[in-house]
Amino acid sequence: xxxxxxxxxxxxxxxxxxxxxxxxxxxxxxxxxxxxxxxxxxxxxxxxxxxxxxxxxxxxxxxxxxxxxxxxxxxxxxxxxxxxxxxxxxxxxxxxxxxxxxxxxxxxxxxxxxxxxxxxxxxxxxxxxxxxxx
Amino acid sequence: xxxxxxxxxxxxxxxxxxxxxxxxxxxxxxxxxxxxxxxxxxxxxxxxxxxxxxxxxxxxxxxxxxxxxxxxxxxxxxxxxxxxxxxxxxxxxxxxxxxxxxxxxxxxxxxxxxxxxxxxxxxxxxxxxxxxxxxxxxxxxxxxxxxxxxxxxxxxxxxxxxxxxxxxxxxxxxxxxxxxxxxxxxxxxxxxxxxxxxxxxxxxxxxxxxxxxxxxxxxxxxxxxxxxxxxxxxxxxxxxxxxxxxxxxxxxxxxxxxxxxxxxxxxxxxxxxxxxxxxxxxxxxxxx
Lengths: 134, 288
Ligand SMILES: Nc1ncnc2c1ncn2[C@@H]1O[C@H](COP(=O)(O)OP(=O)(O)OP(=O)(O)O)[C@@H](O)[C@H]1O
Ligand SMILES: [Mg+2]
Fold this sequence. Notes:
The complex is a heterodimer. Chain A is of the alpha+beta class. Chain A contains 4 helices and 5 strands; from the N terminus they run βααββααββ. Chain A has a 5-stranded antiparallel sheet, covered by helices on one side. In chain A, β2 and β3 form a beta hairpin. In chain A, about 40% of the residues are buried. By secondary structure, chain B is α/β, with parallel strands linked by helices. Chain B folds into 2 domains: about 160 residues, Orthogonal Bundle (Globin-like); about 110 residues, Transcription Regulator spoIIAA, CATH 3.30.750. Chain B is about 60% helix and about 10% strand. The termini of chain B are far apart. Chains A and B meet through β1, α1, α2 and α4 of A and α9 and α10 of B. The structure holds adenosine-5'-triphosphate and magnesium ion (MG). Magnesium ion binds next to α2 of chain A.
């Protein structure tokens, strides 16, 4: 997969979550992605960014315009160096939360995007990579 | 300032760029303010090397005091770009300023080595004074930024109040158009305004219109549900309107449901429903 351009944004406060998902939206708007694709990816980014902020103590979001053969897409990597997730499978399950949320963020994000990959290591942090193809 | 006689600063920059770079990297890596969580050593090194080179070129002109002059244009461009990129990465203003300030130590060290006759005692005192003034300036910058942020926060709060009006559209019917995002702070304001309006107008029905909400994630959904629940406790019935198709679709994917909350596609539908609930009917005049 070729990265055509990228941008890294911090996730330190709630306003940053809005900034990042708006940026994703703007990118996709400019590139002429369909509204539904924009909304899906932006919503997934919103979930993951908020997790990084709420549970990971903040992190960064890396936005990339990517190309795979003739296919174009947007990839977003959301990373934090927080406590990590001991049992990823359990965390992905709908309804599971250790906070006051609905426990739908991770599972929902996975259903919203074309590609979803999660890496987490207790004590090291969490990194979620998602891709939406055009 | 004479440009014929090489300025010592220009000379040091020209003759020892590598030594300067190594010392500078050392200083930055050891500093308590280094942000290796935001930027790698390789990038710090590349940026430092570039600035040394640009400084050298600018100083060769003979002008080592007026950085607003044309010869310093490229240095200014570089710093502008650096500041922009560090700000987006999450560096604080003082951490950003430290990058440049930390060059003073290697630069002055080099200058000192170039003039061995300099009195050590005098040199040390001057160094101390210089660092002291820098620290004061950085502290000032820090508190200045903090108070600026407070002003912005306050303005945001005021804007939030302005942007969450509760409108009584008919006797017994309130409409709450929400535009933008619904975060925790905003929900608090929305909820207070709504509850107060319900009491003041003795309304039975509150329509929360989210046509202006660009997306609904689990957090927004939760805040909406909270608002509806609070309104119910005050005895009002709630309708959520303006859920656009793409939002309805993402909500289904997320697994979020407004279960027992009445929803309508548009504000007009919600109004019609509200009138029906209150046993009212809107009819067309028969005259024409
Ligand atoms: N970046 C992270 N670092 C550490 N733990 C995390 C991270 N992301 C998720 N988790 C853990 O996984 C759980 C499930 O996350 P998920 O996003 O699915 O639900 P939630 O955030 O609790 O609620 P919701 O997203 O519905 O508001 C969280 O409660 C938390 O314990
Ligand atoms: Mg979540």
